[in-house]
């Protein structure tokens, strides 16, 4: 079976493959159709890039200046893994005329190292530390697509969505926190067409696993962690072992984690099903299947979790309690179980999003407001855009783009100048289906 994450089969002609994919790319930009030989992972990425209105030409945006970059990456968990990256990929990049790059979960490049001449060439498309290379801002590329798919991937030449990047080939692998299982970022090697081989993909995968092992060695106590923000299927990590839950089990685990003293069957049924008539055996069957997966973590009478569970939902709330708005925004990976219709989950989802938005609006920090507006759940948030406009100096050129977006949204919502944007429904509910669900671990 052909590995779908590899760019080309062994023995394929890279020149002919480039021509074929370039024609397919032009057709996609023209009429939105895509067909073989374009790989499914690339076709899906092209569609996400187009939906996000990523530029098909131009350089990636730079979001972190030198001062902000230094402070941010010094405190980033992947800083502890840089010796591993440099040992396993540094000389490979330097000797082979490649680049070693490491990014955060938002696709911001934190380190770009390697061959000096290649670095100078990459600077022309802003492949530099501080630039944002997620799919929404740079289109299909190995680090951005590895983050979106949560899987190691190779992107060859014309498979890149942005034409300026199509002379490059790259391979990247995501990295996860060994304690929580949450995405920390990705490691990437970028260079010429000769990187389109199974060896480069295997190398970045092995490097990512070595880095995670290095981080795990510094994590003496693992515990139980649950990640459910921006995911329809929660990720449960128990002492380093990862388990992707189904949707109903995800809802149950989120609700029990929020009620450490436990819930009766009737209480849990109301939070899951609302006022619908449900036979008690339905809930008991779900809990029996969940117990089969998590073992002694789930207790009954009342239903409760036997160990403390750290959740990403609580991490955002704790950061807000501490007044750490930037940390809260960084921990917020999207609405809680966005497709869930369970009443208890809907209340938790709405309360957290509303609290975070209100905190951002009150803080009136242009950088934080921009960060929220660049997300799938915040890009149509009129109140955020108008607040951003009002925080910028009156004659600043930086006001023009947010003003244009605010005007477009007002027209779309049928609002006149001066009417309150608070009348607009929260945008996240209308966009939940856009979230990329990573494959099972």
Automatic annotation (TrEMBL):
<dbReference type="InterPro" id="IPR003018">
    <property type="entry name" value="GAF"/>
</dbReference>
<feature type="region of interest" description="Disordered">
    <location>
        <begin position="417"/>
        <end position="441"/>
    </location>
</feature>
<dbReference type="InterPro" id="IPR029016">
    <property type="entry name" value="GAF-like_dom_sf"/>
</dbReference>
<feature type="domain" description="GAF">
    <location>
        <begin position="116"/>
        <end position="214"/>
    </location>
</feature>
<feature type="compositionally biased region" description="Low complexity">
    <location>
        <begin position="421"/>
        <end position="433"/>
    </location>
</feature>
<dbReference type="Pfam" id="PF01590">
    <property type="entry name" value="GAF"/>
</dbReference>
<protein>
    <submittedName>
        <fullName>GAF domain-containing protein</fullName>
    </submittedName>
</protein>
């Amino acid at each position: 079976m052909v590995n779908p994450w590899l760019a080309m089969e062994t023995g394929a002609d890279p020149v002919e493959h480039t021509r074929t994919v370039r024609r397919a790319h032009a057709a996609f930009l023209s009429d939105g159709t895509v067909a073989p030989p374009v790989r499914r992972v690339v076709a899906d990425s092209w569609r996400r890039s187009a939906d996000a209105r990523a530029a098909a030409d131009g350089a990636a945006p730079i979001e972190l200046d030198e001062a902000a970059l230094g402070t941010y990456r010094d405190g980033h968990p992947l800083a502890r893994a840089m010796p591993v990256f440099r040992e396993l990929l540094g000389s490979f990049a330097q000797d082979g005329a490649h680049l070693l790059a490491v990014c955060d979960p938002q696709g911001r490049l934190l380190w770009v190292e390697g061959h000096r001449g290649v670095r100078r060439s990459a600077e022309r498309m802003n492949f530099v530390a501080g630039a944002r290379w997620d799919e929404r801002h740079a289109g299909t590329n190995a680090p951005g697509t590895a983050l979106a798919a949560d899987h190691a991937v190779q992107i060859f030449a014309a498979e890149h969505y942005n034409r300026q990047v199509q002379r490059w080939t790259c391979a990247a692998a995501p990295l996860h926190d060994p304690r929580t299982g949450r995405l920390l970022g990705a490691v990437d090697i970028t260079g010429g067409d000769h990187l389109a081989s199974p060896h480069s993909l295997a190398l970045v995968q092995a490097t990512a696993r070595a880095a995670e092992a290095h981080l795990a060695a510094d994590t003496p106590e693992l515990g139980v962690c649950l990640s459910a923000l921006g995911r329809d299927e929660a990720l449960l990590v128990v002492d380093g072992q990862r388990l992707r839950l189904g949707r109903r089990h995800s809802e149950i685990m989120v609700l029990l984690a929020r009620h450490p003293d436990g819930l009766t069957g009737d209480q849990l049924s109301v939070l899951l099903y609302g006022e619908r008539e449900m036979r008690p055996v339905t809930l008991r069957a779900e809990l029996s299947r969940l117990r089969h997966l998590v073992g002694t973590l789930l207790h009954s009478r009342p239903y409760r979790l036997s160990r403390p569970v750290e959740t990403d939902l609580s991490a955002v709330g704790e950061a807000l309690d501490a007044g750490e708005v930037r940390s809260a925004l960084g921990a917020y990976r999207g609405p809680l179980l966005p497709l869930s219709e369970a009443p208890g989950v809907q209340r938790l989802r709405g309360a957290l999003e509303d609290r975070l938005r209100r905190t951002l609006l009150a803080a009136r920090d242009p950088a934080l407001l921009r960060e929220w507006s660049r997300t799938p759940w915040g890009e149509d948030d009129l109140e955020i855009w108008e607040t951003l406009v009002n925080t910028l100096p009156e004659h600043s050129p930086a006001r023009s783009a947010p003003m244009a977006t605010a005007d477009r949204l007002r027209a779309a919502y049928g609002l006149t100048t001066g009417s309150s944007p608070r009348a607009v429904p929260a945008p996240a509910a209308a966009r939940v289906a856009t979230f990329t669900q990573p494959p099972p671990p």
